[in-house]
Each structure stands twice: as C-alpha cells, then as structure tokens.
Amino acid sequence: LRVTFTPIHRRDKGTTGTIAVLQDVTEQEKLEQSRREFVANVSHELRTPLTTIKSYAEALNDGALEERELSERFVGVIRNETERMIRLVTDLLHLSRLDSNQAPLRRRQTNVHEMLDEVADRFSFQLRQKSIKAAVRVDRGLKAAWLDRDQIDQVLDNLFSNAIKYTLDGGTIELTAKKPADSDMLAISVKDTGIGIPKKDLIRIFDRFYRVDKARSRNMGGTGLGLSIAREIVKAHGGTISLHSELNEGTTVTFTLPLLREGGEPA
Ligand code: ADP
Q1: Where does 148-224 show beta strands of DSSP type E?
Q2: Nearest atom (ligand 1) to Cα of 229
Q3: Residue 267 has pLDDT above 70, yes or no
Q4: Helix 68-99 vs helix 226-236: angle between axes, to the nearest 10 degrees?
Q5: Measured between alpha carbons, how far is 38 from 44 in angstroms, rounded to an integer?
Q6: What is the number of the ligand 1 atom nearest to the C-alpha of 158?
Q7: Strand 133-138 to strand 172-178: parallel, antiparallel, or no bridges (unpaired)?
Q8: What is the tens place of the pLDDT at every residue in 166-199?
Q9: Tell me, what DSSP letter sits at residue 70?
Q10: Is 214 exposed, middle or buried (CB count within 10 Å of its CB: 0-12, 13-18, 19+)?
C-alpha cells in the first residue's frame, strides 16, 4: 500500500488540511517486477549464444581456420547457436503479438482426428530416432472443433516436441481428444512416459523462461518459452491448460477448447 499526503493550501488561510491517497501498489509492483525479470531473462538468453559465437569466431581467426576438421566443427557450433537465437527471437515476437492481441484468431471448422494424426506425422522422424511409440485416440462422437489451425498446431507442436525431448528412448506418447460429458469443451491431452517434473517446479512451469534444468533444455535446443506460448494461445481461444507430472513416470498436458462457435452453433 502506498500512502501519499498532499497538503491543501488556501492563499488566505494557509494550510487547511491534508489529502491522503491510499494506493494498492502490490499488483502494479508485481507487474513491474515481472517485467524487469523478463528483460533480464531476454538479455541473458541472447547474450549466452552471442558470447559463444564470438569466442568460436575468434578461435577461427586465431588459426583454427587452418585445420579443416576443427574449423568445420566450430562453424557447426556457430550455426547451431545462430539457429537457437533465431528460434528465440521468433518465439519472443510471437509472444509479444499474443500479448498485444495482434494475432487475431482465424477460426475454422477443423477435423480433430486429422489434426492430431498430422502432429504425429510431423514428428515421425524424431519418434523413430528415439524409438518412441505414438498413439492418437479421439472420442468416437468427436468430429470437428472451431479453432485457429495454425495457432493450435503451434500448441500441439510445442507440447509434442517437449514430450519427445523429455522422454527416454523406447517410451510412448499418447495424443487424445475427448469431449467430457456435460461440457461444451473439447479436451486434448499429450501424455508421455518421460522424466517428469519435480513437484516444486510445477507451480512456475508455465512462466516465461522457466525450466527445470536450464542446461538440459538449452542442449535440446529449447527456448523456455514453449509452454508460455501454448498457454497464451489456449487462453485466446477461451480454453485452459494444465499440466500433471510424476517424477520419473511421465507428464500429461491437457488443454481445453470450445467446441461450439460463438453463438452456440455446432462447429
Ligand atoms: P523448453 O524450450 O525449455 O522446452 P518449455 O516452456 O516448453 O521450454 O518448457 C519449460 C520446461 O518445462 C522445460 O525446460 C522442462 O524442464 C519442462 N517440461 C516441459 N514439458 C515437459 C515434459 N513433457 N516432460 C518433462 N519436463 C517438461
């Protein structure tokens, strides 16, 4: 609570009173604090790859260029770091568009089964590489939903790529779509048999840049923004997203979307 006192002056009578203003600044301060943290995080996330790029470029300059094998390796590192920075900046731009509502939803009637099958297809190479089995299950009666396909594809890709990243070889991933009874919402889940998330981290897991293991996430090419982007997109659709996880057993992320068009017509 911020209290400010302003004396009331009257030219003829001097000070005749005081105005006290009580202002609840906790919300405002929290916002300010999280903005400061965000800027610090962005700077740090950009600085890390830039420092790496600089030192590898210097090493090339200082003679590594003469050795073919070494220079190829160094150029590889520089390319990887550059790609990660591009991913990071792309994610940041996407978040900022979502924050300022500059990404109007283009909802269409969408076949849910087809959409989920295509997610698994997009990742078939990575699935094979890690011998991970993927299964898609869609409730019988469930046909179409009213959603922005590009945006929901982004949500599904973020969740599915996490499931692959954080699941050991030989695991399984299930993609399911259900219509819970007495609800006009569609519930989509991505369930893995992966490493899971410790209880103490669950509360911050949707925060921007929050990762259980920074080094691991970076090594996997993660930006720490995937879940926050997913949450913003789901929110824009009028749905909710939640995550359940057991350490060393697996993680399930579930999000809901309205099945009906605005106005209540079936999609
Ligand atoms: P990242 O780019 O690091 O994957 P995300 O925002 O997508 O960023 O996820 C944040 C963090 O949540 C990850 O760094 C990881 O620690 C944890 N996480 C997300 N999905 C899973 C999952 N399926 N299994 C285990 N941990 C996960």
Answers
A1: 172-178, 185-192
A2: 6
A3: no
A4: 30
A5: 10
A6: 7
A7: parallel
A8: 999 999 999 999 998 888 899 999 999 999 999 9
A9: H
A10: middle
Type of residue numbered 210: Y
What is the CA angle 153-156-157, rounded to 5? Answer: 85
Strand runs (DSSP E) across the chain, as ranges? 2-10, 14-23, 108-111, 133-138, 144-147, 172-178, 185-192, 241-246, 250-258
Specify the pLDDT at position 110: 93
Q: Are 189 and 175 in contact (CB under 8 A)?
A: yes
ipTM over 0.85 threshold = yes
- Mean of pLDDT over the chain: 92
Scanning the structure block, which residue is given the tokens 């300022």? Answer: 100
Distance separating alpha carbons of residues 209 and 205, to the nearest angstrom: 9
Q: Which residues pair with 253 in a beta bridge?
A: 190, 243
Q: What values do phi and psi take at 12, rounded to 5? A: -80, -30
Pocket of ligand 1 (CB under 6 A): 158, 162-163, 166, 192, 194-197, 205, 211-213, 217, 222-228, 251
Give percent above pLDDT 70 in the chain. 97
User: Which amino acid residue places its CA nearest to atom 18 of ligand 1?
Assistant: 162
7 alpha carbon – ligand 1 mean position (Å) = 54
